[in-house]
Amino acid sequence: MAWIRNPAALQMRCVRCHRIWPFEEHDYVEGCPACLNSGWPASVKVDYQSWPNSLTARSIQDWLVYTSSPLLGEGCTPLVEFPVFAEALGVSKFFVKNEAANPTGSHKDRMAAMLVQRATELGVETVAAASSGNAGAALAAYAGHAGLSCVVVTTQDMSPNWRRAVEMHGATLLCTSTSDERWNLLAAKSRSGEWYPATNYLMPPVGSNPIGVDGYRAIAFELFVQMQANPATDVLVPTSRGDLIWGIAQGFADLRDAGLLERLPRVHAVEPFPRIRKCLENGDYRSIHEGQSAMVSIGGSTVTYQSIKALRISAGTALAVTDREALDDQGILARNGLYLELSSAATLSAARSLTVADDEAHSKVIVCLGTSHGYKEYENSQWPTEVYS
Q1: Using 50, 70 and 90 to split pLDDT, how confident is the model at 155?
Q2: Of 252, 218, 221, 222, whose CA–CA distance to 234 is shortest?
């Protein structure tokens, strides 16, 4: 297959120190070489030399690093309005951007589509990810479509649903004893040139492969097109290491820089316990934050600089949600027709805290990112059950 790289994508730029790097020199999954050497790891982004003059649903691909048509039908996901939640929260409009409508059921398809195009251009044979869920399934599917070999390194905690999907797509599944061993194996194979990495393996982390992350900018572009009549004021994003929130915030910033958007919506990070919020307070994003959560897709103890930068770009906040709140709202969303994974349901819980005691809540147009559907979740012992006799 022949992929078309955007001619405006000529270089890479650090999101922290803003240093320019050659597009072809590295895979940049370890981020900016200068920031890494200084002890403050940070990711890089694709640096575009120009923008198209307009944006429509048909031209979104022209704004991405690879401009080929969708590979498996990813993107253009539904924006579903819920007047019942708008009324309950006292806001003007409430929407869910349903990323579960992507081919493998999550937003990770957008990253995988960009990643395999880059891998094909480089002539590599094997792509790889450290993943216990959506990222592994998405990469396996898109690698299979592109004719590439794929390795997913995981742990014993991986849900059987995801495990079966990875293997059905023809990928090799390797299991390590711990998450640290998973990252160590991916690092060794990537640095040796045997695998082309899709996901982070550094500690402190920097985020996933920036070519893949570039694909998340399309969500901002789609929201811009879908919400011409009622532009979003607030976008709530389930956040772990920040690939998704960075892509969305950067996409809106690109629209502003292109002269198509006057004011950015506030993009908020939804997390299972205060990690990003603490980093915003103390200024050091390299810390380890203890906490456990049933929201496995946004779990973990680390924060990336790109998460901090996304909130600064958009004047957003970090909103912590408990498992109990997310579990309750998962049920409420499902009873209103949308069964999302627990991490996605947390955005409704975050919306509640965002609007409490806000005198301007009535004017808000809220968008929650539904990153994946709930069918992939194997079990959750914390969910209350009733037995009928």
Answers
A1: confident
A2: 252
Residue 204, preceding bond cis, omega within 30 degrees? yes
| 175/132 Cα distance (integer angstroms) | 10
Contacts of 53 (CB under 8 A, 6+ apart): none
In angstroms, the CA 227 to CA 170 distance is: 39
β-pairing, 196-197 with 234-238? Answer: unpaired
What single string gives the DSSP state of each residue in 167-200? Answer: HHTT-EEEEESSHHHHHHHHHHHHHTTSSEE-S-
Is 245 a residue whose pLDDT tops 60? yes
Nearest residue to 312 via CA among 347, 355, 269: 269
The residues, any chain, with a CB within 8 Å of residue 3's CB and separated by 6 or more, are 66, 68, 117, 120, 121
3-class SS at 83? helix
Tokens for 241?
Answer: 């290491």
How much of the chain, in percent, has pLDDT values that exceed 90?
A: 84
SS3 (DSSP) at 98 = strand
Cβ–Cβ contacts within 10 Å for residue 286, how many? 15
Three-state secondary structure call for residue 342: helix
For helices 160-168 and 134-146, give the axis angle rounded to 10 degrees. Answer: 10
**Quick check: 381 pLDDT over 50?**
no
Query: DSSP 3-state helix, strand, coil percentages of the chain (rounded to 5)?
Result: 40, 15, 45
DSSP state of 265: P
Percent of the chain with pLDDT over 70: 96
**Residue 290's CB: how many other CB atoms inside 10 A?**
7
Decide which of 1 and 195 is more confident. 195
Longest Cα–Cα distance in the chain: 67
